[in-house]
Specification:
heterodimer, A: mainly beta, nine-stranded mixed beta sheet, eight-stranded antiparallel beta sheet, flat, B: mainly alpha, two-stranded antiparallel sheet
Amino acid sequence: MFRAAILTVFAGVAMLSGGSDFGPVVSPTKDTVTATLSYQETGQSVINWSLYVTPQTTPFKKEPPVSPSHLVRGVLNFGDGPSNAIPFLWQRDAGKLFLDLNRNQDLTDDPAGAFSTGLRAPLSYQTFTNVHLAFNTAQGRIQVSADLNFWDYGDRPGGSMSVRSYWQGKVTLQGQDWQVGVIPTIGSGIKGNKNISIETGHLLLRPWENREQAFNAYGGSLDTVPFSQKLFFGGHAYQLNLQTGSADGEFRPALDFLEQPAALGDLKITGKYIKRLMLPGNNYLAILDHPAGTVKVPAGNYKQPSVLLEKGGIEASSTADPWQSDTKIVVTADGKVPAVLDLGGPLTNSVAVARHGRDLRLDYRLIGAGGVTYQLVAQDRSQPPEFAVYRGDKQIASGKFEFG
Amino acid sequence: MPLTAGGPLKIVTSSDLGPLGFKDGSPVAFTWVLPSIAPLLLPWLVILGLLALKPNRRPAAWLIWLPLTAVMALTLLPPIMPASASFLLDAIAALAFGLAAVWLLSNYLRRAHRLLTFFCVLPTLAAFSALAFVARQGGSWLEVETLQIGIFLAVGALASTIALSLGGWICRSRYRPLGIYPWLFALLAMAWLLMSAPFFLFAVLASGGQIPWSEFFTPVLAVAAGNFVLLFPFLILSSSCAFFRERLKALLNVKLDIPPQLPATSLKT
C-alpha cells in the first residue's frame, strides 16, 4: 500500500527555548521535503560524553599567570586526530579553566576561553558551565554548548561534557507537525568512539506540541533515536538525507525527507499503554507512536525493540536488553498471518527468587507483556518496592528492596 | 534474607505503578527447603573438640567462647550494611572461628623461628576459617560469588597472620599490650593496602586512569578496620586472662612467662 506524500515543511528558525511557531517556509519539491535545522541551546543536558584528558607538564607557548600548585595542564582530545584537540589549564584552587579555543598554544588570546566555577567548589571536582566549543568536521564547523566537569582525585585528571545544544526544526508530514533535530556524536579521540559526526549521533523526532518539554538521549523517553537514513514513522517510510554543506564552512544542517515506497506487513502488538515503540529493522528503523492492536510496518526483520509506556502521566521504559540477542520478529507483506510482538502493559510487580546458601535472594522485577522488564522513568527512590513472604496465609517476613 | 521457616512460600511484591498496573503483584511461589542445622553446628563442635586437647584442659580455655560468641552476635544484629555487602558478615563469622582455633592451637603452632610460626599459623587459620565458611554456605559453596568471598576470606587470613607475625617482631620479642594493639591495626591496614594495590592498579589501567584514589583507600581501610574489630575481642581476652595471654605470646613469638628450665647441675640441694 503506497500513498503519495503531502508534505509541508516549516524550516527551523533560530528559536529561543520554547521555540516559535513561525519561520520561513521551504517550498517542497515534488517528492522531497527539506527541513532546515537551526542551532538551539537548552537549559538541560541532552547527552553526555566522556572527556579524555592527556595531562602534560610542559607549559604551553603562552599561558596566563597561574599558580603552579593545584594546576592541571593538558589537552582535551576530540575526534580522531589532533586538529580538534583543545589545550587547557585548570587552576583548581582558583576554580578557573582556561581553554585554547583557537588551538594556537597561546592561552592568553582566547577571551571566550576563560571560565570560573563561580562557587566555592571542591578541589577535586569542578563544573564550568556555558562553555562554547567548535569542532572542524567533514560536515562543517560544528559548535557545541556544554557544561564541562573536571575531576582530579590524585591519579589522573578526567572529565565529562554535558551537551546542552542541538539542531532542530519543524516539519509537517501527512498533516502532522513534528519537531525534528540532530544531536552529533562527539567522540573523545583516543578511546572508544573517535568520531564527531551526525550520522553516528541521535535524531530528535517528536510531535511539535512537545517541543517545550525537556528531553535527553539517555532517559528512556525515546524522543531521540539512533540516526537512521531509513526511517518509518507516522505510518510512512522515508529516506533521510542530511545536507551539511555551506559556503562559509559552518555546519548548517538540513534534513531531506523523501517518502519511499515500502511493502508493509501486519504486526500485532499484544500489550497496551505503549506511547512510543522503536523497532530497529534490517530495512527501516520503525517508530510507532501509540500503537495498539495490529499495525502496519515495513516488511523485514526486527530486533531489540525499545518501548516507552505511559498512562495517566506515569511512564515506564523497557530496560536495555528486553529480548535475548538472537530473538527477532519477522514481518512479511503477504497479508496472511501477522507477526506478533508480545510487548507493552499492563505492568506487574514481580520478583526473581533464588536460593543462595542459607539465604533467599529476592530481585525485584517490573514485568510487562512477553516478560519484558521495565523501569519507571520517574522512580521515587524514597519509596522503594516492598515484599512480603507468606507461608500459607501467614506473613512470615517483609521488607523493602534496595536500589542497586 | 535469612529464613527460619521452611515449606512452600508465596512472595508478593508491591509498588505504586499508578494506572500502569496493580500495586500488588501476583504471588511468586517458591519452596524453601530448610537447610540442615548440622553444618551450622560443625564449627562449634570443632572448637569443642579443640578444647578437649590436653593443653586446653583448663577452665580458662573455655573463655574462648566469649570472643567467639561476641563476634557471632555482631553478625546477627539487624543489618548495618546493604544486603549487597552482607557477604562480609559470612567472612567475618568464618574468620572468627579460624582465630578461635588458632588461639587454642597456638601451643602447637609456635616454632623457634618467627617465619616458621607464620607458616604454621597461616594454613591453620585459613583451613579452620574455610571449614566454617563452607559449613555456613550450605550446598552453594561452588557458586562464583561464594568463591569470590572465599578469596576475600583467604586475603583476610593472610592479612591477620602477617599482622600477628610482624607485630611480634616490631615489639622486639616483648609483650606490651598498649604497644601491640596500635601496631596490629597499622599492620593490618598496611597488609590490606599492599594486597589490594595490584587489583586497584589493574583497574586504573583498564579504566584509563579514571578511578579516584579515594575509591581505593576508603574501602580498603574500612575493611582493615573491620578486620581489627574482629581481632579485638581475642586481644581483650588475651589481655585479661593469663592463659590466653600466653597463647597470644606464642602467636606473636614473644617471650613466655613460663619460668626458664634451669640445668639440673645448677641446682643446689
